[in-house]
Design goal:
The protein is of the alpha+beta class. The chain has helices at 53-62, 123-129, 148-161, 169-178, 180-192, 244-263, 276-279, 334-350; strands spanning 14-20, 27-33, 40-42, 47-49, 86-88, 91-95, 108-110, 113-115, 134-135, 138-142, 203-208, 210-212, 221-228, 234-239, 267-271, 285-286, 317-319. It has a 4-stranded antiparallel beta sheet, with no helix packed on it. Strands 10-11-6-15 form a 4-stranded antiparallel beta sheet, with helices on one face. A 3-stranded antiparallel beta sheet has the order 1-2-3. Helix 3 (148-161) crosses helix 4. The longest helix has 20 residues, at 244-263.
């Protein structure tokens, strides 16, 4: 980057405001500040904001001296439709035969890289059933991981510790008793850091280590906090939740995959619906893939940027990154971010004279 004749890199320098002209139609300059230096201005013909989905929207919202609701936010869309990739392990496959070869779905080395296969649902079937997709690798796991007794033990101790008797108490207690060796294994590992039963490591099945396509919801959004950071810029504040419809969507996707596994003779799929509270709560993970807060749409009333990633009605301001995604899909966003960045660079290069 430093060797490139096309770039000038400024380190330890933070953009704190995009300064628009009096009509809000062009960016005149950006204001820069370091932790211990003076306020500076930088002027260019075109500006690209590429700070990630949270910081992109935060900067647009905070640049509000001309447009009181922030740049590009005439329709209250900046910061809205924040999406993530929830990670959810809610089902597993018990193979129909011990020598079933599912290595395609396990991490395979290719030189310095790894590749892994995933199950997903065909687009036409998704449309027919009104579903959004999930990405499901078959991750081999041992008997210990799949233990219903250990899970029931956790649920029982949590409820009893609050002075409550769970409504399915006898079912949970039966799981603990029926799987008492794995419960003892769990206690020994935790208290003594010692394994009691070698059979606990026997591969039993394949976990559905799922990455979920979260539909865009306008109330999932980045806003500005009243608190300020060290540079005097208002901090970002995130409002984000998982809807009941998304949860039910994942269960329905699992049912589709389960039916196909049975039809193909691969094995039987077990859904952990009885673990839903913990699975969608303390055991939920995230892709750390922030998307959607400056969504792309050809109409200004429905999006922040147009098909060229230019902010609607601001002639010389562009946004790069996954904040422009109208939907999030079910795979990591990196390659799509790179593709859009290259596409934007080509667009700016070929139309440089028009955009003076």
């Amino acid at each position: 980057l430093f060797d490139s004749p096309r770039l000038r890199i400024l380190l330890h320098t933070n953009v704190v405001k995009l300064q628009a002209d009096a009509e809000g139609r062009r960016i005149q300059h950006v204001e820069l500040r370091s932790l211990d230096g003076p306020l500076l201005q930088l002027r260019a013909r075109r500006y690209i904001v590429a700070c990630g989905a949270i910081e992109n929207s935060r900067l647009l919202l905070a640049s509000n001296d001309v447009e009181p609701h922030g740049i590009g936010n005439a329709n209250d869309l900046v910061g809205r439709f924040f999406m993530e990739h929830p990670g959810f392990n809610g089902a597993y496959l018990l193979p129909s035969q011990k020598d079933l070869d599912l290595r395609f779905y396990e991490h395979q080395p290719f030189g310095t890289y790894e590749a892994v296969g995933y199950v997903k649902i065909a687009p036409e079937l998704l449309r027919a059933k009104g579903l959004t997709n999930v990405r499901v690798p078959f991750t081999p796991q041992d008997r210990y991981y799949f233990s219903d007794g250990i899970e029931s033990y956790h649920q029982l101790t949590a409820d009893l510790g609050k002075g409550e008797l769970p409504p399915n108490f006898w079912h949970q207690l039966g799981n603990v008793i029926g799987d008492i060796d794995m419960v003892a294994e769990a206690m020994s590992r935790k208290l003594l850091n010692k394994s009691l039963f070698p059979s606990s490591r026997d591969q039993t099945g394949y976990l559905f280590s799922t990455m979920v396509d979260q539909p865009p919801e306008p109330e999932n959004r980045v806003m500005l906090s009243d608190k300020q950071d060290a540079l005097g810029l208002r901090r970002g504040k995130l409002s984000w939740r998982i809807t009941r419809s998304l949860i039910e969507n994942v269960w329905r996707c699992y049912e589709v995959i389960a039916a196909e596994c049975g039809r193909a003779g691969i094995g039987r799929v077990c859904l952990w619906r009885d673990r839903a509270e913990r699975l969608w709560g303390s055991q939920l993970s995230y892709g750390n893939h922030h998307m959607g807060t400056t969504r792309m749409h050809q109409e200004a009333a429905k999006g922040v940027v147009d098909a060229d990633c230019r902010v609607h009605d601001v002639a010389n301001l562009f946004v790069a990154g996954s904040s422009v995604f109208p939907t999030g899909g079910h795979v990591p966003p990196t390659l799509t971010i790179v593709a859009l960045a290259i596409r934007m660079a080509e667009h700016l290069k070929t139309r440089a004279m028009e955009l003076q």
